[in-house]
Amino acid sequence: MIRHAVIAKLLFSALAATGQTVTIDFEEVASTPSTVPVVSSKGFLISNPVGVFLASGPSYCLPECPGGSGHYVIAQGTLPTGPVTLQRADGAEFSLISFDFAETNVGIPYPPEIRVDGITSSGETISFVVALDGINDGSGPLVDFQRASLPANFRRLRTVTFAGLPGVLPGHLERFNYSLDNIQVGPALGPISIPMLNSASLCIFAFLLLIAGGAALHVRPA
Ligand SMILES: [Ca+2]
Ligand SMILES: [Ca+2]
Q1: pLDDT reading at 185 higher than 60
Q2: Residues 6 or more apart from 135 whose CB is under 8 A from it?
Q3: 3-state DSSP call for residue 150?
Q4: For the structural domain made of 22-190, what CATH number should be given?
Q5: SS3 annotation, 62-83
Q6: Nearest ligand, CA 41
Q7: Which residue ranges make up each domain of the chain?
Q8: Ligand 2 center to 49 CA (angstroms)
Q9: Which H helix or E strand runs over 196?
Q10: Which of 17, 41, 72, 106 is the least buried, fewest Cβ under 10 Å from its Cβ?
Q11: Cα gap 133→66, rounded to integer Å
């Protein structure tokens, strides 16, 4: 029976790991006075060839940056420098579920859109584009960050890149600064819903009962 309990515990651990999601909110990461090439958080790396800022609140920059999201990263640079890349530190596959995005400095041009490219382990590229709303009053009452939810096919990913797209207005061609926060990532095949997890648990339990019954018969003395 002890062996069966151990098996059940291991299987429950495996199920929990399969369905686990993580939100990278950067709250545990110290802000930086200047750009850094890589930010590490919760087993993931966020990098940019020209660096990223780790911002802390709207007063981090002048006159202000987006508010209401604590710590977050600011992607910066000029086209066509490399985009911001997200990947697991151990190189394993993951899924991208959602993320928050915003402009950067109040009153400074921003890219009208951000393109998200997911590169799968088989080399396929999946793209998704979000549009910035221009609402950015720093410490003011408006909600500066927006939430983007990715399609279900953003799974089995090796890397994800975020790139500010150029627009048609003056200034848009020169900058692609924007902000990212609350990047929700999950297991390679995507998050498992509670009903699915319950069904899986029931199947595992049924399988365990069969094994337990067979083992009990096998060890019963003649
Ligand atoms: Ca945050
Ligand atoms: Ca906004």
Answers
A1: yes
A2: 142, 143, 144
A3: coil
A4: 2.60.120.1350
A5: CCCCCCCCCEEEEECCCCCCCC
A6: 1
A7: 1-20+192-222, 22-190
A8: 25
A9: helix 194-219
A10: 17
A11: 12
Q: Which ligand is nearest to the CA of 132?
A: 2
> Which residues, including other chains, have CB under 8 Å from residue 165's CB and lie 6 or more apart?
111, 112, 113, 114, 115, 129, 176
CB atoms within 10 A of CB 155: 21
CA distances from 218 to 4, 212, 221 (A): 14, 10, 8
Cα gap 102→145, rounded to integer Å:
5
Q: What is the DSSP letter of 132?
A: -
CA 214 to ligand 2 centroid distance, Å: 61
- Torsion of the alpha carbons at 102, 108, 111 and 112, rounded to the nearest 10: 80
DSSP strand pairing (113-120 vs 157-165): antiparallel
pLDDT digits (tens, 9 = 90+) for 120-149: 999 999 999 999 999 999 999 999 999 999
Q: Give 89's strand partners.
A: none
Tens of pLDDT, residues 82-128? 689 999 999 999 999 999 999 999 988 888 889 999 999 999 999 99
CA 11 to ligand 2 center in whole angstroms: 43
Residue type, 217: L
Identity of the amino acid at 215: A
Closest CA to 31 of 164, 142, 163, 179: 179
